[in-house]
Write a structure and sequence with these properties.
The chain is of the alpha/beta class. 53% of the residues lie in helices and 11% in strands. It has three domains: 36-78, Single alpha-helices involved in coiled-coils or other helix-helix interfaces (Up-down Bundle), CATH 1.20.5.170; 83-295, Rossmann fold; 308-360, Helix Hairpins (Orthogonal Bundle). The protein has helices at 23-33, 39-47, 51-62, 66-79, 99-112, 131-139, 141-145, 160-176, 192-197, 220-225, 239-253, 278-294, 297-324, 326-340, 346-360; strands at residues 87-93, 117-122, 149-151, 181-187, 202-208, 228-232, 266-269. The structure holds guanosine-5'-diphosphate (GDP) and magnesium ion. Guanosine-5'-diphosphate binds next to helix 5.
């Protein structure tokens, strides 16, 4: 939504604005925020763990405005030397399984150990169903107010790849801001688990006990990615069922090929609501980190992930810069016509356009 009046709220253009913003409170925020800080000021703020500045840096990352992008990239680059020092944990599971409640319990446990926890999300549905973010925050009532926790809802975007890219970049900012544990929530929709898996050290699948065949309805690929299956809602009348499910999952997991990490995935029962099993999950994650650091899988995988990020960022940026170029767009339309009229082939047209792009850049 574009504002016609000039605004001192610099990150407005290219950032989806809530429709219900009250004009007077918007004015107050604008006055408070003033002009957009410089890259150096952003860096200083992020490194000092300044939450408002961290949030604004993430907003720049999420923005579709080219100027914001440029600045975001400069901030990210400057933050890189300070990133990479955290443990990144991915949490997936179908809606209603208790991810947000689990993150509240797990996050609170982590901050009680003196850790700083950032909660990010990759939720391709959240841009359509914005209400879910609000629901999540109310499930994280205590974590939201915890000074050692930072919760950021899923960025909106048209493509899952775009959403994931923004979350990846936000990880770097959060790490530079001193967050040592990054939790990334995702729903079992589309390929979002694969995306999250490509940016975390430990991948946790949340489940609830079903009736009978526990593996039914779970995509095989997700089980293969999981380093642990946590059967949640193990409380009240459900304890017996979760115990049975645990036995069955353990048996099933042994049928899967060994993981590259050498880690044997575990099954743990929890009640996020009653706060049981949470410590056990953390101890397991710690054990995994020690294990994979010792056998060098941890670093190998991070390096692989970094190469993947590098390549996908190049791809993303090249594509953007190519298609956003006005001269290219004009020439592209012409070439499409040429192909239609049999004057040119797709290959020679592509070559011509790429040559034109080369000359311009
Ligand atoms: N009994 C019980 N209910 C839970 C537990 N964890 C979550 N819930 C409930 O399950 C519902 C969905 O939880 P939520 O955290 O929003 O799930 P999400 O959609 O996966 O994020 C809520 O009503 C929670 O109170 C648990 O351990 N035990
Ligand atoms: Mg949730």
């Amino acid at each position: 939504m574009k504002s016609k009046k000039p605004s001192s709220l610099q990150e407005k253009e290219g950032v989806p604005q809530p429709e219900t913003t009250s004009k007077s409170s918007a004015k107050k925020i604008q006055n408070k925020r003033g002009k957009q800080p410089s890259v150096d000021a952003f860096l200083e703020g992020v490194l000092a763990g300044n939450i408002p500045l961290l949030s604004r840096a993430i907003t720049l990352v999420e923005s579709t405005n080219q100027n914001h992008h440029k600045k975001a990239n400069q901030i990210l680059e400057a933050c890189l030397p300070y990133a990479n020092q955290s443990i990144r944990i991915g949490i997936t599971g179908v809606p209603g399984v208790g991810k947000s409640t689990f993150i509240e319990a797990f996050g609170k446990y982590l901050t009680s150990l003196g850790k700083k926890v950032a909660v990010l999300a990759v939720d391709p549905s959240s841009s359509i169903n914005k209400g879910s973010i609000l629901g999540d925050k109310t499930r994280m009532e205590e974590l939201v107010t915890d000074v050692n926790a930072f919760i950021r809802p899923s960025p909106s975007g048209t493509s899952l790849g775009g959403v994931a890219q923004k979350t990846r970049e936000s990880i770097i900012l959060c790490e530079a801001a001193g967050f040592d544990t990054i939790l990334i929530e995702t729903v079992g929709v589309g390929q979002s688990e694969t995306m999250v898996h490509s940016m975390v050290d430990f991948f946790l699948l949340l489940k609830i006990a079903g009736a009978g065949d526990e593996l039914q309805g779970i995509k095989r690929g997700i089980i293969e990615m999981a380093d642990a299956i946590v059967i949640n809602k193990s409380d009240g009348d459900n304890i017996k069922n979760t115990k049975l499910a645990k036995v069955e999952f353990n048996r099933a997991l042994h049928l899967y090929p060994a993981k590259e990490s050498g880690w044997q995935p575990r099954v743990i029962t929890t009640s996020a609501l009653k706060n049981t099993g949470i410590e056990e999950v953390y101890k397991m994650v710690e054990e995994y980190i020690t294990f994979t650091k010792k056998n060098h899988f941890f670093d190998t995988r991070r390096n692989e992930q970094n190469s993947f990020w590098l390549l996908s960022t190049i791809e993303h940026n090249l594509k953007n810069s190519f298609f956003k170029d006005k001269e290219i767009s004009f020439a592209l339309i012409k070439e499409i016509d040429n192909i239609k009229n049999g004057v040119s082939t797709p290959f020679s047209a592509a070559k011509k356009l790429l040559n034109l792009y080369d000359k311009r850049s």
